[in-house]
Amino acid sequence: MVEKLPESGKIWYNGKFIDWKDATVHVLSHGLHYGSGVFEGIRCYATDKGSFIFRLQEHVDRMYRSAELYKMEIPYSKEELTVVIKETVRINGLDACYIRPIAFYGFHHLGVNPTGCPVDCAVAVWRWGTYLGDDALENGIRCIFSSWRRIDPKTLPVTAKATGHYLNSMLAVHEAKDRGVDEAILLDNNGNVAEGPGENIFAVKNATLYTPAVESSILPGITRASVIVLARDLGYEVVEKPIKKEELLAADEVFFTGTAAEVSPIREIDSVIIGAGKRGEVTGAIQSKFFDVVNAREERYMAWLERV
Ligand SMILES: Cc1ncc(COP(=O)(O)O)c(C=O)c1O
Fold it and tell me: Would you call 161 a catalytic residue per the annotation?
């Protein structure tokens, strides 16, 4: 069972901090009926040097890019939203948390055309542990290939992190849970590996990293971009290219990246054991570097951390 969020604290909603119980929407909101919202998932880490938000600017930039792709005008500047995000963490007194900013078309009229609907905006935070289970980071998770294909750029701007897009992710997650495993992997419309329902994916073969490029219908993950830099700085070659299902199954190591998943090894896909069936050496090196970076132990990457 997934744990319920605490019904407490303050949520920033349309310019004001309000009590958790008051942060509600009307049932006739456009966003509820048509999935017309954009959002982000961001992590704040408690470190020996204080609390830091990982790649805050990149997340805010992606949220505004997502809005642009849907012609939605967020009624606050990026700078204002950045200040609000930090303030929401502070006001809730959390040293480590998950941060969820969202902008969506609110109530005015109902009809697919949102013109005239307000763009409502909120930021909430909550304490959050490892997304895929406590032992996932160490021992890896079990996956299936979903029978649902990842949404296609011919139909939707897949690089936007938009609320409606997650119906596709939800179907894949249901399928994984129904089949008794931890997570799904979606293929793109050409049958190449795309990503997880909320994670990007990497394969390791002979100490080279491979990851699907944007052409494979992925959401360009901020953790993915960070891991590419870290891997190269560690001396590994990283190649962005289409990856076939069988290449993934034959990889030495496979892992997911994402704000929620962080760096999570995958030990099994469709009952095929990947590599040695546990976290591999390259995944271990990258995961350990990633946690050093987010925990402010790496001077070189301090520019990725924003103090709360
Ligand atoms: C569909 C999807 N792909 C990939 C990711 C990973 O992106 P990031 O590393 O920016 O969290 C996410 C999470 O935001 C996602 O929802």
Answer: yes
Mean pLDDT of 116-130: 93
Q: Is the pLDDT of residue 306 over 90?
A: yes
Answer whether 264 contacts ligand 1 (Cβ < 6 A): no
- The CATH number corresponding to 136-294 among 3.40.640.10, 3.20.10.10, 3.90.190.20, 3.40.190.10 equals 3.20.10.10
Nearest protein Cα to ligand 1, atom 2: 198
pLDDT tens digits, one per residue of 176-199: 999 999 999 999 999 999 999 999
Report whether 26 contacts 107 (CB < 8 A). yes
Please state at what angle helix 281-294 crosses helix 222-233, rounded to 10 degrees: 110
* Architecture (CATH level 2) of domain 10-126: 2-Layer Sandwich (3.30)
The helix or strand, by DSSP H or E, that contains position 83, with its residue range, turns out to be helix 78-91
Is 84 a residue whose pLDDT tops 90? yes
Please tell me the residue having the least CA distance from ligand 1 atom 7: 221
Counting atoms of ligand 1 from 1, which one is nearest the CA of 223? 9
Cβ of 262 closer than 6 Å to ligand 1, yes or no, is no
Give which of 62, 86, 57 is closest to 74, Cα–Cα. 62
Name the band, by pLDDT with cuts 50, 70 and 90, for residue 133: confident
Q: pTM of the full predicted structure? A: 0.97
Kindly tell me if the per-residue pLDDT of 134 is higher than 90: no
Of 267, 280, 275, 203, residue with least CA distance to 239: 203
